[in-house]
């Protein structure tokens, strides 16, 4: 058995706003991920993890087989019609990655566009991710963005579907957020990042020309804004947006006009948000908070030369503070809206009439505690819309929604072998936060589970992202062992609308953490939880670190995945990804008041001598969002401060992956199984003690 590694201590004293902050492990950042000393330390941590897990590998293997037993290994995803073809992804038994396929609507054999398994072998790659794939309007070409390192830096490849060969040499160094064709299928729109991996430029690439001759369409110099682009639903206009958390600026470009340049449609105005803008016919549609519509409303503008004027905006769906609008999709004869009411996702349909729009009709489902969203829709003239439906106990269903009758037709229910929904029950409870706010918590368990039970509490609570109740096979091994799986819908998400997000960011960020701790305390007090294991990833890893500092005694084990735990060091370094983009989320620590807020909760900086629970910390060496050094520093400092009786701390670094972990579906399942085996040993008291290591 190896002993727990100890990182070298190389004291650095940070001084900001007259506040001094010691940092013994700053070198893990400054020396870089290619440094031999850094790699040696991360490798030693991986060896320590292997030593801890050695007696648990049998349990891990059993859990992996349970997870795999619920996977329909050979399966086709639902087809999505684009032009003359239906596109879909296929998985085959024993193969780790998807195969991209298409079928001619007029009849004929299926075509294989891209087999990621073969590509991985042919090019000797460790991981492969495709973020976007788009056929040309005539279907002759098929473009896709490929990442092979997990660093989220992409190559653009264009397949000639007639020959099966690449139509030209790949473009390199692209962002993963933009890929669309012009109307003639002769040019592609894409984005690139600046040195901090902030998408800052939109380009037009004419096929056959070298990348050095590509046209720059939009450049955003403001480091707090990032660019994106997408076609309108009718394909006639490219919408280009420069956006921050608190403002958007919209430009448009005619995709049918060779050499067309973007024209400004709506200028940025801080505090005025227009997260969605589209149009067809004689008007533009926008979701906006303009005029104090905090939960957003839907307005229309007449199309005209020049920029739009808010004086011309007309309400299509007037503001309702009880209804939070989040998205839309426009069809020739209908408008499909997405949003939230009463804490749950909702859809509404409005008919398009010669004079405007009819009333909003809500799409009804048999139960409220479900998650529904707009799916992939690429036929502007369609009379039905693809939507996606799920709940904690109901595997994902792809439905076609008739936009006139609002009836739904099942396209595909995700097959889950060995799963019987009748054995499980989902519930929602409410807990009271320290400031009196009521916070919803979703619960999943087997009907025959006796309470109190071992409980895993999951949380996120940032960026306005909601942790909606959705089915996942990954929970079944724990739930089938008599655990309760709980999701705390803490402030910082948008489960209860925009106010819920605003109450968990910037100066109010501490609410996210105290909500989560209160949820854990309440689950113990009300007889649900016997012991608590906490889990969260990325910004949810920040939540784990903060909750650990607030109540180290509350948790038997904590799983911070790719965790954002060194808040001050990261947000003070504007040369690394995401920092400047996220001043509106966390604050700008160059300002003294905002520094103080962040210093009060930054997990790394608030570690103290304590009896810590078991910790399983994970990261990816190539992660561009939360760098490896954050979790590495956190693990090292926990070991320094852990008092006698503390649990086992392990740090797992996936050397060939980034923020999302391994790209292989089998490796993904194995990573879950490893964490669950650790959790089971933690609650059973069978993890080796630090002295034994």
Automatic annotation (TrEMBL):
<dbReference type="InterPro" id="IPR001375">
    <property type="entry name" value="Peptidase_S9_cat"/>
</dbReference>
<keyword id="KW-0378">Hydrolase</keyword>
<keyword id="KW-0645">Protease</keyword>
<dbReference type="InterPro" id="IPR023302">
    <property type="entry name" value="Pept_S9A_N"/>
</dbReference>
<feature type="domain" description="Peptidase S9A N-terminal">
    <location>
        <begin position="10"/>
        <end position="413"/>
    </location>
</feature>
<dbReference type="InterPro" id="IPR002470">
    <property type="entry name" value="Peptidase_S9A"/>
</dbReference>
<dbReference type="GO" id="GO:0004252">
    <property type="term" value="F:serine-type endopeptidase activity"/>
</dbReference>
<dbReference type="Pfam" id="PF02897">
    <property type="entry name" value="Peptidase_S9_N"/>
</dbReference>
<dbReference type="Pfam" id="PF00326">
    <property type="entry name" value="Peptidase_S9"/>
</dbReference>
<keyword id="KW-0720">Serine protease</keyword>
<dbReference type="GO" id="GO:0006508">
    <property type="term" value="P:proteolysis"/>
</dbReference>
<protein>
    <submittedName>
        <fullName>Oligopeptidase B</fullName>
    </submittedName>
</protein>
<dbReference type="InterPro" id="IPR029058">
    <property type="entry name" value="AB_hydrolase_fold"/>
</dbReference>
<dbReference type="InterPro" id="IPR051543">
    <property type="entry name" value="Serine_Peptidase_S9A"/>
</dbReference>
<feature type="domain" description="Peptidase S9 prolyl oligopeptidase catalytic">
    <location>
        <begin position="470"/>
        <end position="683"/>
    </location>
</feature>
<comment type="similarity">
    <text>Belongs to the peptidase S9A family.</text>
</comment>
């Amino acid at each position: 058995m190896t002993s727990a590694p100890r990182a070298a201590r190389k004291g650095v004293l940070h001084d900001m706003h007259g506040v001094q902050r010691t940092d013994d492990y700053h070198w893990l950042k400054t020396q870089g991920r290619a440094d031999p000393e850094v790699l040696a330390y991360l490798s030693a941590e991986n060896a320590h993890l292997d030593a801890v897990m050695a007696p648990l590998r049998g349990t891990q293997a059993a859990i992996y087989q349970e997870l795999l037993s619920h996977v329909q290994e050979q399966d086709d995803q639902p087809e999505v019609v684009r032009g003359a073809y239906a596109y879909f992804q296929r998985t085959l038994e024993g193969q780790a990655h998807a195969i991209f396929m298409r079928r001619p609507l007029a009849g004929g054999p299926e075509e294989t566009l891209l087999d990621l398994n073969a590509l991985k072998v042919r090019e000797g790659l460790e991981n492969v991710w495709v973020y976007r794939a788009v056929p040309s309007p005539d279907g002759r070409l098929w473009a896709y963005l490929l990442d092979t390192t997990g660093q989220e830096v992409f190559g653009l490849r264009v397949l000639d579907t007639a020959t099966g060969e690449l139509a030209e040499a790949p473009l390199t160094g692209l962002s993963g957020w933009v890929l669309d064709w012009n109307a003639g299928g002769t040019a592609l729109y894409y984005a690139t990042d600046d040195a901090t991996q902030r998408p800052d430029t939109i380009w037009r690439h004419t096929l056959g020309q070298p990348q050095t001759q590509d046209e720059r369409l939009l450049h955003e110099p403001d480091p707090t804004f990032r660019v994106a682009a997408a076609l309108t639903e009718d394909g006639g206009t490219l919408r280009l947006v420069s956006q921050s958390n608190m403002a958007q600026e919209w430009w448009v470009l005619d995709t049918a006009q060779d050499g067309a340049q973007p024209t400004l449609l709506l200028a940025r105005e801080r505090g005025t948000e227009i997260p969605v803008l589209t149009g067809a016919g004689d008007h533009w549609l926008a979701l906006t908070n303009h005029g104090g519509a905090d939960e957003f409303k839907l307005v229309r503008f007449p199309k005209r030369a020049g920029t739009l004027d808010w004086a011309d905006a007309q309400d299509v769906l007037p503001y309702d503070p009880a209804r939070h609008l989040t998205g839309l999709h426009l069809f020739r004869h209908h408008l499909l809206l997405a949003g939230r009411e009463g804490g749950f996702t909702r859809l509404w349909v409005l008919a398009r009439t010669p004079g405007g729009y009819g009333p909003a009709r809500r799409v009804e489902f048999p139960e409220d505690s479900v998650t529904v969203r707009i799916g992939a829709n690429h036929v502007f003239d369609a009379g039905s819309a693809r939507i996606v439906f799920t709940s904690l106990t109901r595997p994902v269903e792809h439905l076609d929604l008739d936009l006139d009758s609002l009836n739904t037709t099942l396209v595909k229910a995700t097959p889950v072998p060995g799963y019987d929904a009748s054995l499980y029950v989902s519930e929602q409870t409410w807990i009271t936060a320290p400031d009196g706010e009521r916070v919803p918590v979703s619960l999943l368990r087997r009907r025959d589970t006796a309470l109190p039970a071992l409980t895993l509490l999951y949380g996120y609570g940032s960026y306005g992202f909601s942790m909606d109740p959705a089915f996942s096979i990954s929970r079944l091994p724990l739930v089938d062992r008599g655990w309760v799986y709980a999701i705390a819908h803490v402030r910082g998400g948008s489960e209860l609308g925009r106010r819920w997000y605003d109450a968990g960011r910037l100066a109010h960020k501490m609410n996210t953490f105290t909500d989560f701790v209160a949820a854990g305390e309440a689950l113990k007090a009300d007889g649900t939880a016997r012991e608590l294991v906490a889990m969260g990833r990325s910004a949810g890893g920040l939540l784990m670190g903060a909750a650990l500092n607030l109540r180290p005694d509350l948790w038997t084990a904590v799983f911070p995945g790719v965790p954002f735990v060194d808040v001050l060091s990261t947000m003070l370094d504007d040369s690394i990804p995401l920092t400047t983009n996220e001043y509106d989320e966390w604050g700008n620590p160059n300002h003294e008041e905002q520094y103080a807020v962040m210093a009060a909760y930054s997990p790394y900086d608030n570690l103290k001598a304590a009896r810590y629970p078991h910790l399983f910390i994970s990261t990816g060496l190539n992660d561009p969002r939360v760098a490896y050094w954050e979790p590495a520093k956190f693990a090292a400092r926990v070991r320094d401060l852990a008092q006698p009786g503390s649990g086992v701390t392990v740090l797992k670094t996936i050397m060939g992956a980034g923020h999302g972990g391994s790209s292989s579906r089998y490796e993904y399942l194995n990573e879950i199984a490893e964490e669950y085996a650790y959790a089971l040993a933690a609650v059973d008291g069978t993890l080796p003690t630090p002295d034994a290591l």
